[in-house]
Amino acid sequence: MTATTLNTSITVSRPAERRPDRHGELDDLTLARARRGERDACRALVRLYQRRVFALLARMLSGRDRQSWVEDLAQETFLRVFRALPSFDRNGPAKLSTWILTIATRLSIDELRRKRPQLHSDPAAPVPGAIAVAPEQADDLLRRKRIAAAIEAAVAALPADNRAVFVLREYHGMAYGDIAEAVRCDIGTVKSRLSRARARLRQALEFLRQ
Amino acid sequence: MEHTDEAPLDPGLLAEWDPTSEPPHDFADLVVQRWSVESPLTAADGTSASTAPYIGGAAESSTGADMGAPVAWWKASLVGGLAAGLVAVLGLAVLNPAGSDTMEPPEPPRVADTAAAPAASMSEDVAALEAQLAAAQAELSKLRALHASCKSSGLAKLPPTGGDAPRVQLAGRGVVLGARGAKVELRRIDKETLVVAQDLGSAEYQLTATETVLVVTPAGSLTVRGTSFTVVVPSEGEGEVTIRPKAGQAVVATASGTATLMAGEKVAIANRAEPKAHKRRKARSKSRLKAGNKRRKASAVMTF
Asked: pTM for the full model?
């Protein structure tokens, strides 16, 4: 947050740079100004939610060019947010962050379906990384890296919808109803997909018990 | 209470996987710049793009150069023009409410009145201007699409009484002269304007109930009445003249008489090299010969 300090030592906050509310959401005034298309308010919105969008997209997408891919989709996500912002209901059931993550989720699922083939969609297939690690012989740093690699490989093996369910629940703490809305399915489907994803992760992390 | 079949995973383990990278430091600026290309943004002080200062035709942003300046410029100019027009109309209505010929000199604006203007009225003005802007943008997009289609299809606009087209001319109202093998497309833009495209294989002309189009070809002439039709002008001795009226009938006048055709009917040209082709067809297999006969029966053969 930037502030302008006057000679009389009075600090005046710019309205567009107001602090988010206690729930980490954009305040009403800045949201209203962003809806009107004010540049500073739009910038404040992006700055507040960009880390969450990047975190989601980075976990949804994988590959050598992930960084540029994530940036492109993040930009597209916020452009869609701005386009649809007038229709967002502040008093509706979804928070703004949930709404933005929903847009990012759908965008990434569409992108995965369009560009990247699903490599390990067979649930019975062996999980990559589950055999390759040797934790008892590795130091702690290597062990952590291998855990991360195992999780990433297991998540990357999930179908796009299941991956979205898992990431939104485990890493963004979204409610089942919001996840169901984001991936356009029933809550029961969300739970079953989450169950399958967790089982797959447990299989991938089985080496930790050895 | 929410229920899952599987217990949650250890958050400590899950936290080990953190592929998140920091967004670029100018990511927000990039997004806002891209958004400014799509939509005119409001300046930082709350003024709209139409009232924001301009330097050299480019909108000045709070962060410096604006990547979307050209687009924002014409949109803002349009809004500004509409606003100026609205102000002028309102000013005339206020200054000359009875519509008298003599006009009193305008009084200087009162600052207090301006400041006291209700916000609702201003929002209505803004909404009206936005509606006009949206209509203008829609019209502009239509014109752009039409222009693009004309460019891509090679349509050329010709004057109604001729032109410099080497092969196709408009000779008088509703008469098209086509040279040998000419392929003509006519597209009516308004009551007086026809667009003629060559070598596109068809002539299309929107007719009223009383209008007549005469298409002159080397093989004869066609006079067609109807609400809409398509004529494929053939080369001499080959091809077909196809008349496909979208509604109603089409009348074909030839040297041998006049025929009334319904939608989808075809008129075969009689003076093509029929004997030779017939002999070749005879040598083909029986099934293909039958198919050829069926096709010929479906067409009305006429002599021009």
From this structure: 0.43
